[in-house]
């Protein structure tokens, strides 16, 4: 058996789908960064017998068990007791933990209740994995030779702090991290997963670094991962592959890692010292929300007009009533006039607009649900883009992908006339 890790997340609320299992995602990413192999994840409800069965299976195939959840004071918090019973070890109350819990309650102006004493019980021989942000301590324990168990509370904020402060340094010090895995994720918009995969197919055969495609949320991603002795060595392996992929995919690659379409657009506007305003119909402010989520965007984004009613399009954006009467609000002509109007009204360098039919009602044979027009105007020209998003998702999806597509339209236009150094 190699030195692989397994994640066991405890909580009936996870099985019911009431809570997103972000802890498993976080720990998986952290294990990859440490270069610790990780092949299995398990979610088990608040049941001692089922949890012990999950632990039994994990012990047969993994040497590092990471458990989250079930460390609270209530009867359904049974992780520690189940572990002690499975390994045949008694629970011992730790006075220093009682004192720590009492102090934390006092700092909040409260008195510790009797059931919180349960959180001070650890299996005999286990070390404390401190929790500075909550009352539920974790444990670091070798219940048998060649097996290491760590427990964390289910609260993501507490679990992540405990991992970064204690658990990860402990694993590194004990030699679990002989190499690291470093990744770079390239993000794409305006190209489908199959088309992108066809362009870069030979890269999927690489062994170190590896290249893997992912799709979701309307975009496609290529994750480049390298295993090496240090982050610097891994980055040097990734760099030439990234350069080749960017060259092949060109403008379809909009960014990397934490970049968003909005943050990239704001960066381009900043580089040009130019400003933007938006006029939205079917997206109802979603485009402006994406832009204002970027810190510092207020210097380059001046505002927007949500123009659902045609009277707002006419009176606030200067859309020609005759155009509305002849071709309708959902049209290239109206999208262009909206972009021109908001640019003039706001006094910005660029005006960006969206008009469409988000559904579920309002579509016709000529203009079905999902039909969207995007307008873009600057001081010298106005242009528009037609897209059909029907059949790909519901109303919220159409609104979301419309806003993203508008940002991508502006991004590509900015890149055509300006490439930042």
Automatic annotation (TrEMBL):
Annotated signal sequence is none
In which family does this protein belong, per the annotation? Belongs to the CinA family.
SUPFAM superfamilies xref list: CinA-like, Molybdenum cofactor biosynthesis proteins
Pfam families found in the cross-reference section: CinA, CinA_KH, MoCF_biosynth
In terms of NCBIfam families, this protein maps to: cinA_nterm, molyb_syn, PncC_domain, PRK00549.1
Q: Which residues form the MoaB/Mog domain?
A: 6-173
CDD domains reported for this sequence: cinA (cd00885)
This protein's name: CinA-like protein
Record lineage: Bacteria, Bacillati, Cyanobacteriota, Cyanophyceae, Nodosilineales
